[in-house]
Amino acid sequence: MKMKFYPLQFEPILKERIWGGEKLKTILNKPISSKITGESWEISTVEGDVSVISNGDLAGKSLNDIIKSNPEEVLGTEVYARFGKQFPLLFKYLDAREDLSIQVHPNDELAKKRHNSFGKTEMWYVMQADTDSKLIVGFKEDSNAAEYLENLKNKTLLSILDNVAVQVGDVFFLETGTVHAIGAGMVIAEIQQTSDITYRLYDFDRKDAAGNERELHVDLALDAINYNKIDTYKKYNKELNQSNVMVDCPYFTTNFLPLDGEVAVNKSGNSFTVYMCVEGDFELEFDGVKSKYIKGDTILIPAALKSFVLRGKGSLLEIYIS
């Protein structure tokens, strides 16, 4: 059955985390009731956490439902040809009240072999950062498994990892194998492959409410880690009313679109497009219908919607697969 498509929003899937806080409510208007909400999964088809449409005639249907019945119209012709009826990306907002664990994600080959999953290439856009907030991204210098294990054993792992101060608007691209951790005091928009596979290397000896330390995955991580020093920071332009490329990789393209006025958008139908509103607000007009969005909103534009207009004063992340 052919559906009449329009810009889609989804019920946020909220995740309590030991390191989470309340900024997803105070900054991004998410309906949280917990003081340790760490993540809002905005668009997901991870098993057990499939997004449900919250607006319009399709409200109540899951993203998997509409992909199953209309794969090319939702995903796009090229995305469907490449991934079948799998939605290949996962979109999140994260609030780190405390440091996250130090972790790494496997590549596609390892993830497929061990977990029958995609790998987890991801990127971060810093939406808010307290003074002195920092990220851990890779090694300070080229390292190796022996040096890594020795420092892990001696609880000196932080001494060989790169610690980077951040500010609003910073972008980091983390290929699989990059050892990383989000530091305390920031809100981040995260775009990643559809995967929930994380190898936790070190968790600062924290205990949960029941007094237990979280599981570590030291052995699994050994051959997943890239031990070379890598540059994860991405510079990008900020030309008004233009799509400025931030990250362009085989898994996704993310542009920065600073809106001040009106932008007409024309798409090919090869891929869906997602907009994450990271500042201000905007209006989207399609087929004569206008919809308004605010900071923290995430919108999926099905590939069948090829022409629409954006208006407003704000900053958008524009994501698709090319």
TrEMBL record:
GO BP: any one term: carbohydrate metabolic process
Record flagged with keyword Zinc: yes
Gene3D superfamilies, per database record: Jelly Rolls
Gene Ontology molecular function terms on file: mannose-6-phosphate isomerase activity; zinc ion binding
One Pfam family here: PMI_typeI_cat
Binding positions for Zn(2+) per the UniProt entry: H105, E122, H180
UniProt entry keywords in alphabetical sequence: Isomerase, Metal-binding, Zinc
Active-site feature positions: R200
Cofactors demanded by this protein: Zn(2+)
Textual note on the cofactor: Binds 1 zinc ion per subunit.
Annotated ranges, domain Mannose-6-phosphate isomerase cupin: 247-320
Domain Phosphomannose isomerase type I catalytic: 10-117
Record-given protein name: Phosphohexomutase
Organism the protein comes from: Flavobacterium alvei
